[in-house]
């Protein structure tokens, strides 16, 4: 429950400290006194957005602080998931600077606005006059039916299945789009790949071919030069090797007289051996080199083919062309695997949809089973609020495609008058009828909802007299199970509260400010009497006020 609220520098409120009680609390005050300002300040604690326009004094920051006495597993789990300490008392503080910047704290730990919204939704249900309009919304109607049907765990299971289904469905659609694009690309990639593959390129092939081309195109000159070299080395009558052998032999004769000459002899011996090897290899190379016009033509054609592909793809080497070929092969393989992936995704989508339909059917069954008793209970509550002939029934429409809440679209059909045709709620109900219907629904939901606090902002609009008193009794009854706070302009409702807050305007330093205070028993009687009277209340009005405070 909301235990206390501190407001500083917000709208018309300079400073206010409010302690809230268990049960049913009423808030009254003249129009414009600032009753709804309380809701605005509380909204900051529940995650509403803010701006500097709410500041009473534009030079100071606004602070709203709420203390909540609460103990639920859901809130404990939320705090654990967000690394927050959990206690049975939660302190929420919201600060708004003069520049419009906002900060939020839970138990003095900074938190995000999204977290505050999550937490606030577990702490307080604020019913505004605007929310009454949502009664005509099919989604809201379904959520009401779910709350009284006890579909919570089943709906959570369905929600998890739906999330998995949507994820796989998105993947399937992505693969279908990929398949369409891939089929357009496949022929192009295949042509490029085959054009590269047919060449069967090797690393550094261009360099090797260009070297071979140079050799073949100059074969005669190379062969002639090698032949001359062989001749000079050992084929000529006076060749280089024989000459060196003669020199070596001479030195060998002299080596016995001088050790240094022996060293030279060894070196010449090594040189002769090396020259003989060179001569032999030169001869072999000279025999290998053959002028081959066909080979030259083949090399020219292959180099031209490689050069063309290099230019086409803007690449500089055979290594880069080989890498491109491998990349294209992978793309083609990926495209060819799309069909397999798509088939698997479609199969998974169908499997999940089947499971979704099964769970959805269970939801529908449970909702339909609760619809009759729900309609009966609403009729009883409306009858107690002076609408004895009112009827409400639930119409089901089965959807072909799954929604996040199931396969059901529900419509509340309503009539307020005996014998009248049941029609969609948003077409036939008046403002006062909607207020009474919404109060009835909230009274029912309070039995099944885990929310500790509900706040009504003039839910009694459009009703008066005895009906207003009965509405007050319903809210008082709700107060046995939860904390109920209502902003009201009706004395019949104000008289039912276990506690009573009064909002009023005052002058301070030449400024109009809103003040809030808890009324004692005598002050409550006087305040309710004022609400009953046009002017200063007389004794009759005071007595009437006392009767309202004890009337059931």
In short:
The chain is α/β, with parallel strands linked by helices.
Beta-strand percent range: 15-25%
How far apart, in Å, are the first and last alpha carbons?
25 Å
User: Helix segment count?
Assistant: 18
What is the CATH domain class of the domain at 1-127 and 450-519? Alpha Beta
Return the CATH architecture of the domain at 1-127 and 450-519.
3-Layer(aba) Sandwich
The secondary structure category is alpha/beta
State mean pLDDT (0 to 100 scale): 87
Q: What is the rounded Rg? A: 47 Å
The major beta sheet can be summarized as: 6 strands, antiparallel
Give the helix/strand layout.
Layout: E1 2-10, E2 13-19, E3 24-29, H1 35-45, E4 62-69, H2 73-81, E5 89-96, E6 102-106, E7 109-111, H3 113-123, E8 124-127, H4 129-132, H5 138-149, H6 152-197, H7 205-217, H8 219-235, H9 240-254, H10 259-288, H11 293-313, H12 318-384, E9 391-403, E10 406-415, E11 423-424, H13 425-428, H14 431-448, E12 453-457, H15 465-478, E13 483-487, H16 491-494, E14 499-508, E15 511-518, H17 521-532, H18 539-550
Helix pairs in contact: 5-12, 6-12, 7-11, 8-10, 9-10, 12-14, 14-15, 17-18
Report what the structure shows.
This protein is α/β, with parallel strands linked by helices and 552 residues long. The chain is 58% helix and 19% strand. The model has no long low-confidence stretch (mean pLDDT 87). Among the domains are: 1-127 and 450-519, P-loop containing nucleotide triphosphate hydrolases (Rossmann fold), CATH 3.40.50; 205-316.
């Amino acid at each position: 429950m909301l235990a206390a609220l501190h407001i500083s520098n917000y709208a018309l409120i300079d400073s206010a400290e409010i302690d809230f009680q268990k049960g049913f609390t009423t808030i009254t005050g003249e129009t414009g006194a600032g009753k709804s300002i309380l809701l605005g300040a509380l909204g900051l604690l529940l995650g509403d957005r803010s701006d500097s326009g709410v500041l009473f004094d534009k030079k100071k920051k606004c602070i709203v602080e709420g203390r909540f006495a609460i103990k639920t597993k859901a809130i404990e789990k939320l705090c654990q998931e967000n690394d927050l300490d959990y206690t049975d008392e939660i302190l929420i503080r919201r600060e708004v600077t003069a520049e419009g910047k906002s900060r939020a704290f839970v138990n003095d730990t900074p938190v995000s606005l999204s977290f505050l919204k999550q937490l606030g939704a577990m702490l307080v249900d604020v019913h505004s006059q605007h929310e009454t309009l949502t009664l005509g919304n099919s989604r809201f109607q379904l959520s009401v039916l779910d709350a009284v049907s006890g579909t919570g765990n089943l709906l959570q299971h369905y929600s998890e299945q739906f999330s998995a289904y949507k994820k796989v469905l998105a993947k399937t659609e992505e693969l279908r789009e990929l398949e369409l694009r891939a089929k357009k690309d496949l022929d192009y990639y295949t042509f490029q790949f085959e054009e590269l593959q047919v060449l069967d390129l090797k690393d550094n092939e261009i360099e090797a071919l260009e070297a071979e081309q140079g050799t073949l195109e100059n074969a005669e000159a190379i062969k002639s030069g090698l032949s001359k070299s062989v001749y000079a080395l050992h084929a000529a009558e006076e060749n280089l090797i024989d000459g060196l052998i003669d020199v070596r032999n001479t030195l060998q004769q002299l080596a016995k007289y001088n050790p240094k000459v022996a060293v030279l002899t060894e070196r010449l011996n090594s040189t002769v051996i090396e020259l003989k090897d060179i001569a032999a290899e030169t001869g072999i190379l000279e025999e290998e080199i053959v002028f081959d016009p066909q080979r030259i033509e083949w090399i020219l054609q292959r180099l031209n083919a490689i050069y063309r592909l290099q230019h086409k793809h803007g690449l500089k080497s055979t290594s880069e062309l080989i890498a491109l070929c491998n990349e294209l092969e992978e793309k083609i393989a990926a495209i060819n695997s799309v069909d397999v992936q798509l088939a698997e995704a479609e199969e998974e989508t169908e499997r999940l949809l089947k499971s979704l339909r099964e769970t959805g059917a269970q939801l529908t069954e449970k909702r339909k089973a609760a619809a009759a008793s729900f309609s009966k209970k609403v009729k009883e509550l409306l009858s107690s609020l002076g609408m004895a002939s009112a009827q409400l029934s639930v119409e089901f429409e089965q959807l072909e495609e799954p929604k996040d809440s199931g396969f059901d679209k529900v419509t509340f059909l309503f009539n307020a008058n005996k014998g009248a045709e049941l029609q969609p709620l948003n077409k036939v109900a008046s403002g006062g009828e909607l207020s009474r219907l919404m109060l009835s629904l909230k009274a029912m939901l309070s039995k099944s909802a885990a929310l500790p606090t509900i706040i009504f902002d003039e839910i009694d609009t459009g009703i008066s007299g005895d009906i207003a008193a009965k509405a007050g009794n319903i809210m008082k009854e709700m107060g046995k199970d939860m904390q109920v706070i209502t902003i009201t302009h009706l004395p019949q409702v104000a008289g039912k509260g276990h506690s009573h807050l009064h909002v009023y305007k005052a002058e301070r330093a030449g400024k109009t400010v809103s003040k809030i205070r808890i009324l004692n028993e005598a002050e409550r009687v006087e305040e309710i009497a004022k609400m009953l009277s046009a002017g200063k209340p007389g004794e009759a009005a005071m007595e009437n006020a006392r009767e309202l405070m004890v009337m059931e």
